């Protein structure tokens, strides 16, 4: 069994979380290796890419809102730096979200939400039905009003992944296309990972960023594995003409939230279902019917567009809907997971927080990273670990 040279950090999982962490850590001077058999193929591949903390606010999730707003602020420089370094555009657009309502009940709910948002000092503007249609001529004539969150933005997550994969080697970071099958533990501390091909990637620190798989990864101690579960989302891509929509449009249709996201190249993304189906990534007829039915209510013209893609992804959900970021109770093991519906939005915050933790500058940090670390600590779910691998060598823990 070969041992690959000792590196500083090995990141398990090359979705947007792991790749962003790797990029920022490498930029800070750490030697980084990412291990993933298929980087960018998880939830990130399916995601719509909305950076929409304001229009996605809920009455009970103010801590999540604060994280989202902090990360939204980081996105313009994150996108600009990444594009510059990779030479690839990530389609970052900050043209806002229009949340629309149809019936009297919907309107009342929208007004209540607008009051709540104003109390939180969130910048939103209430529009009449006519103003909504003036802003977005493709909207259904039955739209009675809307709420414009002008600061909301979006990116194309597939482009972000491609840009991160292009930027990493320029920072000296490597990507190993192998599945991780276990944690290498020495004297109770994480000191690398085992790969499916039998090699060991030795490292000073391990960042577990395997999305929905983080909670049940083979060979990781259950005491420090995050309580992450897969939440399935199906999504559809349509080919429209550029300018079909000018901003993200969303609304509650048939009791569930539906949205349309326009990309710079004319693609329109319709999302998304939310299903508790375990590790099932089948695209189903029922899921697609639901997406089209709801999107047609918002923007009837979508039925004229060509279908260009169907996918399903697994969001990494946690019991409190907040991510798990930073040091665990096991020395050397850090988490960057549990981002549920907001992993794209939260990527710059996640990357900066983990880079600060790896640099040893996070404790007492008064910035957004320090505040986020307090809210997202993995320790909130776990007590002190039992001793693991008390001798030297590699230990496997199956769960
Ligand atoms: C339909 C849908 C729409 C969404 N829309 C949005 C949105 O608009 N805005 C937003 O912010 N978020 C959105 N999300 C959520 C977002 O996609 C996730 O929060 C985010 O992609 C999670 O990123 P990740 O890197 O943690 O996980 P993933 O992207 O799932 O990456 C995990 C990686 O781990 C790898 N892996 C798994 N097991 C192993 C192993 N044993 N060894 C090595 N590697 C392993 C996988 O191959 C994968 O590449 C959406 C999600 C879905 C499903």
Structure overview:
There is one protein chain. The chain is an alpha/beta fold and 399 residues long. The chain folds into two domains: 1-92 and 151-228 and 318-399, 3-Layer(bba) Sandwich (FAD/NAD(P)-binding domain); 93-149 and 230-313, D-Amino Acid Oxidase, subunit A, domain 2 (D-Amino Acid Oxidase, Chain A, domain 2, 2-Layer Sandwich). It has nine helices and 18 strands. Strands 1, 2, 8, 9, 10, 11, 17 and 18 form an eight-stranded mixed beta sheet that branches. The longest helix has 25 residues, at 62-86. It is globular, with a radius of gyration of 21 Å. Residues 384-399 have low confidence and may be disordered. The structure holds flavin-adenine dinucleotide (FAD). Flavin-adenine dinucleotide binds next to helix 1, helix 2, strand 12 and strand 16.
Can you tell me the overall shape? Answer: globular
Terminal residue distance: 23 Å
Q: Enumerate how many helices there are, as a single number.
A: 9
Unreliable runs, pLDDT <50, ≥5 residues? 384-399
How many strands in all?
18
Q: Considering DSSP H and I runs of 4 or more, what fraction of the residues is helical?
A: 25-40%
In the CATH scheme, what's the topology name of the largest domain? Answer: FAD/NAD(P)-binding domain
Q: How many structural domains? A: 2
CATH class of the largest domain: Alpha Beta
Bound molecules: flavin-adenine dinucleotide
What class do helices, strands and sheet pairing give? alpha/beta
Q: State the CATH superfamily name of the largest domain.
A: FAD/NAD(P)-binding domain
Order of helices and strands: EHEHEHEHEHEEHEEEEEEEEHEEEHH
Report the portion of residues in β strands. 25-35%
- Mean pLDDT metric: 93
Domain FAD dependent oxidoreductase: 8-356
Protein name: glycine oxidase
Keywords: Oxidoreductase, Thiamine biosynthesis
EC number: 1.4.3.19
